[in-house]
Amino acid sequence: MDEEQKLIKQISKGDEEAFRRLYDFTSRSVYQYIYSFVNNHETVEDLMIETYMQVWLSAKRFRGDSKVLTWIFGIARNLTMNEIKKKEYRYSELTNLESQKAEQFKLISKNESDYLITMALKKLSIKHREILDLLFIHELTYEEVAKILNIPLNTVKTRIFYAKEKLREILENMGVNKDAFF
Amino acid sequence: MPFSKRLEEIKVILPLYSKRLIEKEKVKEIEKILQSEPALQEELKFWDTVKKGYEKIKSDLPEPSYHIYQKIIRRIEGKERIQNKLWNFISLKPKFSFGFIMFQFLVIIVMFFYILNLKYGYQTLSTTDIRAETSYVINVVFKENAKESDIRELLTKIDGRIVDGPYRTGLYVVGIKDKEKKDQILDTLRQSNIIVFAEPAK
User: Does A160 sit within 8 Å of B62, measured CB to CB?
Assistant: First the structure.
């Protein structure tokens, strides 16, 4: 049993100190995970409160068949998706890149290439972006991603493949020369 | 496992390799294969670029402020306070608890008498003050699903009327005026599809 699972056990008995420690361990990742969906501090705060309320109330039901962070991400995701359904959030801040001319990106510096890939990632759909977020920001394995999204492992792999294809397409549409990056 | 299949498998886990989220043994294997596979090298370049993009995104992500924790705790305490108040109200207020028990007891008593007073039996189609001019009476039991209109129609047909009943067994006493036709009337009754039983009364 890892440290976080021990904390969950203590939380299930009403240990507030254990709850504070778990919050310290996990809140940054959870906050950033939610923020990547809604981009609005107030809403993220509300969803954080709801998420950790659920953690406090459902700690008894944690079965221990996944990492605690994976479990909390699952709770946060459900609440966030419900919120997104209620209000139409923009998943990411779209820039005016689309209006820029393709030729602008033919010759790009290192900083510009970072900027462009960042913009291209932000243009991905929720479905594709969230899977890459979980891998590259939160450093989760495919199995953990599958648990959070509640999808089979093979679907995770397929989704990553399509996310890659889509990302290539977006970069092409932005007029980015493939050689500039790869 | 065929080499081409192994290559496909490695291609699938390249994002994990790029983030070094796989075991050391697999890392070594991938590195070895990568040296001789330009297509895989190309794929890895793509994922390394994505990784760099995400490093930028991650560095721009905001941090949660600590007051969120205070809000969570206040919310939890608030919820628990409400639950405790409710529980205290029910468990620690003897007058309320006693009153609640008495109320339940009263409901049970009322229900008991209500059930006792429920009247079972059949609704009568006759009235108590009928003075039938009858010379002959027949005991009749109608089917449970017999319609009132059908019963009336049958009584008209035999020129009879209900002079008594119903009894608890569902028995009616039907009187007829014309004693001479008693056999014919009995046949009519017995052939009717709304009659269970028809026999001359003593």
Answer: no
Q: Which of B191, B190, B192 is nearest to B200 (CA)?
A: B190
pLDDT at A137: 92
Say if CB B43 and CB B9 are below 8 A apart.
no
Q: Which helix (H) or strand (E) holds B70?
A: helix B67-92
The pLDDT score that the predictor gives to residue A105 is 46
Cross-chain Cβ contact A181/B76 below 8 Å: no
Q: Residue ranges of the domains in chain A?
A: 3-86, 96-181
Task: List residues bridging with B137 in a β-sheet.
Answer: B175
Min Cα separation A24/chain B (Å): 9
What pLDDT, on the 0 to 100 scale, is given for residue B127? 52
CA A116-A118-A124 angle, to 5 degrees, is: 105
CATH code 3.30.460.10 for B136-200:
no
Is A36 a residue whose pLDDT tops 50? yes
How much is the pLDDT for A148?
Answer: 93
The CATH class for the domain spanning A3-86 reads: mainly alpha
Is the pLDDT at B52 greater than 70? The verdict is: yes
ipTM score over 0.95, yes or no: no
Residue with the larger pLDDT of the pair B193 and A93: B193
Three-class DSSP category at B41: helix
Alpha-carbon distance of B40 to A120, in angstroms, equals 22
What does the alpha-carbon distance between residue A144 and residue A142 come to, in Å, rounded to a whole number?
A: 5
For A55, B65, B79, the CA distances from B71, given in Å and listed in that order, are: 14, 11, 12
Alpha-carbon gap, residue B189 to B186, rounded angstroms: 5
Chain A nearest-CA distance from B96, in A, is: 29
Select A96-181's CATH number: 3.40.50.1970, 3.30.70.1230, 1.10.10.10, 3.40.50.720: 1.10.10.10
Domain ranges of chain B: 3-60, 67-116, 136-200
Cβ contact, residue pair B50, A121, below 8 Å: yes
